[in-house]
Specification:
Blueprint (H helix, E strand, L loop, with lengths): L1 H9 L26 H26 L1 H26 L4 H36 L1 H16 L5 H10 L1 H41 L1 H9 L4 H43 L4 H14 L4 H16 L1 H27 L7 H15 L1 H21 L24 H22 L10 H4 L7
Helix pairs in contact: 3-4, 3-7, 3-9, 4-7, 4-10, 9-10, 9-12, 9-14, 9-15, 10-11, 11-12, 13-14, 14-15
């Protein structure tokens, strides 16, 4: 009787089946072997989730190239927007100001490519014209160094003996030239796509931000606008500081290379200035490699002067020019900048390495703005040198903190006075930031 009472109280059937009063919906019916209904719901849910995941993965993989172009366009719009805002403040129509800024970008890029193309053509032509002299000098050096009796005729005969191999190599090179041509055409198409997206993101910037904020709560709107403002300030500041340093480096290098007697000093100076400033970590070495190579081809003594000039100017830039120009734009620790460049290059290649620096600046500024700072304890492990002591926050960071406090106070006041007619004001109009001009 005790066992029967326990079975009855627990909702179980003495015959082995499960009644509806207990856990009948969680276990298989032992009497008829039926599968409970919840099993099919879970199975269908899992299959739908897996199908949606696979579909999303497929779509993301197929559209990854387009998404990358959109991200690049967004960063370009961040960089151009400060100049567009200045022109708009002077009375320009926003669409016209945006078009003018992008025309300047295209003209500058075209001038750089034209000058560099002329440099390549001149150097290849000179290399071909001086090839016999290089062959004679190389043969003499080999004979003097290794006590051989080589002649230019012997080397010419050896080259002719490999004529069939050279013909096959030329055919392979021709095929690769066609492949490279196709890649160049694709790159030009991508550049125009980025320019088109960036133009609309910049010219329609306020409308785009208003659309984004219209689907967010008021508190999240402030966060989004703060992030947007930081992105514009940091990306634009980074770009303009890099451009200014590139102009200074190019101008000084132009004069130096002309005095050294290097061919195409303007092209070499533009290469040195732009590559050294816009490619992080290894940009200086890549920028100095081309002038050094040209100097070695034309006059080996000039190569020594090139090395000395690059080393001296790099120190002047690092300790005199760069701190004054970038102190209010990109306050990144060198280790953070180097790590960000490596991470960006790993994810998106050279373009990611370039975009990683302003992205890291935005993240650092946002985190340092929302975090609350505290006084540190007195410890030997925390002692700093005199030139490393904290001198306070930058003017931009102080302004951002003040804006955050002001917006938080406004939000609290708005919440307290919601019954006083605050609901009659649209969220996008009540809290307009400098980005919403």
């Amino acid at each position: 009787m005790g066992d029967a009472d326990e079975l009855a109280s627990s909702g179980a059937d003495p015959g082995g089946s499960v009644t509806d009063g207990g856990a009948s919906s969680l276990v298989v019916n032992a009497g008829d072997g039926r599968v409970p209904r919840w099993f099919w719901r879970v199975a269908v849910s899992v299959m739908v989730a897996v199908a949606l995941f696979q579909f999303g993965r497929y779509v993301f993989t197929r559209l990854s190239g387009l998404l990358l172009l959109v991200v690049v366009s967004l960063f370009l719009s961040f960089a151009v927007e400060p100049a567009v805002d200045k022109l708009e403040d002077r009375g320009w129509k926003r669409s016209v100001a945006t078009l003018m800024c992008f025309l300047l970008v295209f003209v500058g890029t075209g001038i750089f490519l034209f000058v560099m193309g002329g440099l390549v053509v001149d150097q290849v032509t000179e290399l071909v014209n001086r090839a016999p002299d290089y062959l004679d000098n190389g043969t003499g050096w080999i004979n003097d160094t290794f006590s051989t009796e080589l002649t230019t005729d012997t080397i010419t005969e050896q080259i002719e003996s490999y004529q069939s191999d050279l013909t096959g190599l030329a055919q392979n090179v021709g095929g690769r030239v066609l492949s490279v041509t196709g890649q160049v055409v694709g790159l030009i198409f991508q550049a125009f796509t980025v320019a088109l997206f960036a133009y609309y993101m910049t010219s329609q910037g306020p409308k785009l931000r208003r659309t984004v904020c219209s689907v967010l709560p008021e508190r999240n709107q402030r966060t989004v606008l703060l992030l947007w403002e930081l992105a514009i300030q940091k990306t634009g500041g980074w770009l303009y500081s890099r451009l200014l340093l590139a102009v200074l480096a190019s101008g000084i290098a132009w004069v130096a290379f002309a005095l050294m007697g290097l061919p195409s000093p303007l092209a070499l100076a533009l290469w040195l200035g732009l590559i050294s400033q816009f490619i992080p970590a290894i940009g200086t070495y890549l920028a100095g490699a081309l002038p050094l190579l040209v100097a070695l081809v034309n006059n080996p003594i000039s190569a020594v002067y090139v090395i000395i000039f690059i080393a001296v100017y790099q120190q002047i830039e690092n300790y005199l020019l760069s701190p004054k120009i970038t102190s209010q734009t990109m306050d990144l620790h060198p280790a953070v900048a180097f790590g960000s460049a490596i991470a960006g290059g790993t994810l998106l290649g050279p373009l990611g390495a370039i975009m990683a620096l302003p992205a890291a600046g935005v993240v650092q500024a946002f985190v340092s703005t929302i975090l609350q700072r505290h006084e540190v304890v007195d410890s030997r492990l925390l002692s700093l040198e005199a030139d490393e002591s904290p001198s306070g926050q930058s003017a931009f960071r102080a302004a951002v903190r003040q804006a955050v406090r002001r917006s938080s106070g406004a939000g609290a006041g708005a919440g307290a006075g919601a019954g006083a007619g605050a609901g009659d004001v649209a969220p996008g109009d009540a809290h307009e930031t400098p980005t919403e001009r």
